[in-house]
Every structure is written in C-alpha cells, then in structure tokens.
C-alpha cells in the first residue's frame, strides 16, 4: 500500500486508498444545526462490540473475525483455563490417595467403603474432560496424516489411563493415576499460558479498533442525532465537534480545523483541514467544528485496511515456521519410535510391565517438541503485534524475518520519522 504514512516509516498505499474515497453526492446545509434532535433510543452496544461490528463491516456477507471462532476451535485461553482449574481441583484427591505419595510424605489417607474408587473415577473425569483437548487434537493430526505434539500427548495419557484402569480391574501391577492427572494438569497449564500470550498478540487488532469513538453525531434535515458508529453508512453527514474523534473516513464539506493524525499516520503536527480535504476515522479534531461526509466504513476504511494487513501478517508463515513444522513432524516420529523401543527394552530387562509403560510414557512426553512447535509461532505472533502497536505494519512475516539482514533503510520525505 504505497503512500500514506504509518509511524515507524512504513509506507501505506496512498494511491490504493485514494480510489476508495467517494465524492460527496448529497447537498448539506451550510449552517450549524439550530438544536439537537432527539437521539435514537435504541440500546447502545458496548464499546468493544461497536468497534468490532464497525470494523468488521456491518453489512451482510462480511467475514467474521477469527477471534469469534476461537471457542469453537478449542484453542481459546478460556477453554484451557476452565479445563485446567476443574482438572486441578479433581486431581487433588487423586494425588492424596496415591500410594506412592502417601509413602513419600508419611501419612495415610482416610479409608471408607468405596474409597478405592476415588482415584479411578476422578481420573476418568480428568482424562475425558481435561484430556479431551489433546485427544481431539491428536485425532485431527492423525486424520491429516501429520502427527504432532497433540499426538504424543494424546497417546501418552491414553496409554497411562488404559493401563491404570486395567490394573484397577484386575491386571497385575500398580496404577499411576496421579501421574496421569498431573501430566494433564501441567499440559493444560502450559497451553493456557501459550494461548494467553497468543491472545495478547492478537489484541493489537483490538487496540487499533479502540481508536474509533463509540458514537457519532449524524446530521439529518438540519438536526443532529447521536447514533452508534456501527450504524453509519457511506453518504451520511456527521458533525465533528472540537476535541472529539472523527467517527469514520470522509471528506470535509464545511468548516475548518486542525486534526491530530499522529495516532494513525505518525505525523506529530496537526494537519489543517478545509472543505474538500479528507479525514481519517479515529483521528482527533482540533478547535474548529467540521461537517464530514462519510465515504468509507468497515473494512474499506483506513483503520480497517490497517487491521486487514495485520491480520494477513498473523496468518502468513515464515521460513522458520515451515522448517519448525517439518522438524516437529520428524521429532514426533522419533519420539514414538524411541518410546516403543524403551517399552520393549524395559519389559525385557526388568520383566515389569509397570516400569515399561511408565518409561514409554515418560519418553513420549519429554520428547514432545512443544518448545519448537509453540514457541516459534508465539514469538512471531507477538513480534508482529508489537510492531503494529508501534506503528510498523508487517504485511509478510517472511520479509519481517529477513529484516535482521537489513543494513540500510531509505525513507521518503514526510517530515516525520
């Protein structure tokens, strides 16, 4: 997008953006409204909802932001947080009734009829509720023939639960229910923290949306009415009072003022605006009043275009990410192979099925390439979001990755760096 400046020296497409501006096509009164009309009494949505609707485009057919699908994709922080706390609470009795824990800490848990079923029943709930995230992820990976981290974790907890349940039902050996629930708790906690960090990275889009005001003063037949910004349409005439934010992209029809565009262009000095000049939604009006004809809303607005670039950058993949995916795939296969070898070796040398299963599960969990599969995308997502917050728009993460090799940067003349 060459042209309009975003602070940090990243050029935006002035020409691309300019063709979207529409000339005002309706006559407007040339005087300030004599009095304010009665505002609409429709329920006003929350600030966040208003921004989301406005920038996503309120007309039918607009795409839905990815964040709205996060809950359904089982990858939102709320999913992992809720499952972690429920699983952790259910894990406490399992750990307290574990024979090895009692022996290590030197106490005896309270026994009563049916107490021997506390660990199996609660572990089953933790496995099915807390572990379902990993089981579902493992199934998705296996269906796509790309085993990964979820496959390792899902296989490990499945083997641990199946073996422990078998010992409870009569198979010789000792169950390790407390190891199972502890593993699920730790994995849920780790993924919760990872998803929180990713969510904060995506929060850069929400911060951009907050630049817009929640309401606007629309002029209808010489009177003003206060409406949610989401109800504005191209062609509407709005009144921008001194010190308030411009509610949408548009063209000044009457009035003169200076507008502070620093938050969207990086230009520190107020920009003089006269009839015929363009204004950007989210900028702050100075001392004069302006009547602005709305030209662009939603995804066609300047901020909408900025948010689209940031979102596209979040979805693009770098060479390092593609390499990490390939390495993680082979690491998973190696972990499964080594886990199987460990199982056979311990079973042959010790004759203990308990030790063999425990070692196989341990190998699969320890070898799980979480750091490689989660940390690299996380770092890139956070760096892209932080760049957007500081005014550097990254359209292609691959270019962002290569930026470390840059030795010289050339800025064209804008008056501000």
Mean pLDDT across all amino acids: 76
Helix content: 40-55%
Summarize the main sheet. Answer: 6 strands, antiparallel
Counted up, domains total 2
Radius of gyration (Å): 29 Å
Strand content is 5-15%
How would you characterize this protein structure?
This protein has 417 residues and is an alpha+beta fold. It contains 14 helices and 11 strands. The chain has 2 domains: 5-64 and 211-310, Calcium-transporting ATPase, cytoplasmic transduction domain A (Distorted Sandwich); 77-207 and 316-405, no CATH class. The chain has helices at 14-18, 47-56, 77-96, 99-105, 118-130, 132-143, 149-168, 177-209, 262-265, 302-315, 319-350, 353-366, 370-389, 397-402, and strands spanning 5-6, 10-11, 215-220, 223-228, 237-240, 249-254, 257-260, 271-273, 278-279, 284-285, 290-296. A 6-stranded antiparallel beta sheet has the order 4-3-5-11-6-9, with no helix packed on it. It has a 3-stranded antiparallel beta sheet with strand order 8-7-10, with no helix packed on it. Helix 5 packs parallel to helix 8. It is elongated. The model is unreliable at 1-74 (pLDDT under 50). The chain crosses the membrane at residues 84-105, 117-138, 150-170, 176-193, 327-348, 360-388. It is found in: Cell membrane. Keywords: Cell membrane, Ion transport, Magnesium, Membrane, Metal-binding, Phosphoprotein, Translocase, Transmembrane, Transmembrane helix, Transport.
């Amino acid at each position: 997008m060459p042209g309009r400046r975003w602070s940090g020296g990243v050029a935006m497409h002035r020409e691309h953006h300019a063709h979207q501006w529409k000339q005002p096509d309706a006559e407007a009164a040339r005087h300030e409204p004599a009095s304010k009309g009665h505002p609409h009494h429709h329920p006003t949505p929350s600030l966040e909802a208003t921004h989301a609707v406005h920038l996503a485009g309120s007309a039918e057919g607009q795409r839905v932001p990815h964040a709205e699908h996060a809950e359904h994709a089982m990858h939102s922080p709320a999913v992992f947080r809720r499952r972690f706390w429920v699983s952790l609470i259910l894990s406490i009795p399992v750990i307290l009734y574990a024979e090895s824990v009692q022996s290590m800490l030197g106490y005896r848990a309270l026994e009563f009829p049916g107490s021997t079923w506390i660990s199996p029943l609660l572990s089953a709930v933790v496995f099915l509720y807390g572990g379902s995230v990993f089981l579902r992820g493992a199934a998705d990976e296996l269906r796509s023939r790309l085993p990964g981290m979820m496959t390792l974790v899902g296989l490990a907890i499945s083997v641990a639960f199946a073996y422990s349940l078998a010992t409870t039902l009569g198979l010789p050996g000792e169950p390790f229910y407390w190891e199972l629930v502890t593993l699920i708790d730790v994995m849920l906690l780790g993924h919760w923290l990872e998803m929180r960090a990713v969510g904060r990275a995506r929060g850069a889009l929400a911060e951009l949306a907050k630049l817009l005001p929640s309401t606007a003063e629309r002029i209808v037949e010489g009177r003003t009415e206060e409406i949610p910004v989401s109800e504005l349409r191209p062609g509407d005439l709005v009144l921008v009072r001194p010190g308030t934010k411009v509610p949408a992209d548009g063209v000044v029809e009457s009035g003169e003022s200076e507008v502070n565009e620093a938050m969207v262009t990086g230009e520190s000095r107020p920009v003089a605006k006269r009839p015929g000049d363009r204004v950007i939604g989210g900028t702050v009006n100075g001392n004069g009043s302006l009547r602005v004809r709305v030209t662009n809303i939603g995804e066609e607005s300047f901020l909408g275009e900025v948010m689209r670039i940031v979102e596209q950058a979040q979805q693009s993949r770098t060479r390092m990410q593609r390499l990490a995916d390939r390495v993680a795939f082979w690491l998973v296969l190696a972990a499964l192979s080594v886990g199987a070898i460990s199982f056979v070796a311990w079973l042959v040398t010790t004759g203990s099925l308990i030790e063999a299963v425990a070692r196989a599960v341990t190998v699969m969990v320890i070898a799980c390439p979480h750091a490689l599969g989660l940390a690299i995308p996380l770092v890139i997502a956070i760096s892209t979001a932080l760049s957007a917050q500081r005014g550097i728009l990254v359209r292609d993460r691959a270019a962002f990755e290569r930026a470390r090799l840059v030795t010289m940067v050339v800025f064209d003349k804008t008056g501000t760096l």
